[in-house]
Design goal:
There is one protein chain. The longest helix has 16 residues. Strands 2-1-3-4-5-6 form a six-stranded parallel beta sheet, sandwiched between helices. The protein is globular, with a radius of gyration of 15 Å. It starts with 7 loop residues before the first strand and ends in an 11-residue tail after the last helix. Helices cover about 30% and strands about 15% of the residues. Helix 1 crosses helix 5. The chain is built from five helices and six strands. It is of the alpha/beta class.
């Protein structure tokens, strides 16, 4: 881990169509964040979640510790953030998968928790053209987050972290991460 790391990010992918996360990883690394990627939590859910827990339990990791998830990975990230002993300072969720989602089912061991159980500042992205999770379902859940904000990605499908809007989404995530690092978890930004 580089000494100059500005924070630690764990990125949980869901193996979803359109879920190319390379651009976001590159942007976070250029911004000097240490990034650990778990490409598809559905392949081995138990091992994936334990790997994320281990990263956040490592006291030598740079703060803030930020958990990012996409698709099934977003649902897994929300589950982890709701666990009482997982030390995550902030959360970014993109295109969560709910029990009502179409075409993708949640693997055993992953369930969307009640939004009120997530206490961390949370930035939620959802594409308004997502064919998997209806935007109304995602927004209904996300608006119940105690410290959350929802960003609708116009024309965004199920993979907004790697889709056409990936540059502005990644910029919003870096700005959000920098605010966590500064200890000012403001949830509004110039990219809204």
């Amino acid at each position: 881990m580089p000494i100059s790391a500005r924070g630690t990010v764990v990125l949980l992918g869901g193996g979803d169509p359109g879920g190319d996360l390379h651009h976001l990883v590159d942007v976070l690394k250029v911004a000097e964040f240490n990034v650990e990627t778990i490409a598809d939590v559905a392949l081995d859910t138990r091992a994936s979640l334990q790997r994320a827990r281990d990263v956040f339990a490592d006291a030598s990791r740079e703060l803030p510790r930020i958990l990012i998830g996409s698709g099934v990975g977003a649902t897994a990230a929300a589950s982890l953030a709701a666990e009482p002993f997982v030390t995550v300072e902030a959360l970014v969720l993109a295109n969560i998968v709910t029990s009502a989602s179409r075409g993708i089912s949640l693997p055993p061991g992953i369930a969307l928790p009640e939004a009120r159980s997530i206490r961390q500042p949370t930035l939620v992205f959802h594409g308004d053209a997502d064919p998997v999770t209806d935007i109304a379902d995602a927004a209904n859940w996300a608006t119940q987050l105690p410290r959350g904000v929802v960003r609708v990605v116009r024309g965004g499908g199920h993979g907004v972290l790697g889709g056409d809007s990936r540059r502005s989404v990644a910029a919003s995530i870096v700005l959000f991460a920098e605010r966590q690092r500064a200890g000012e978890p403001v949830l509004t930004d110039g990219f809204a």
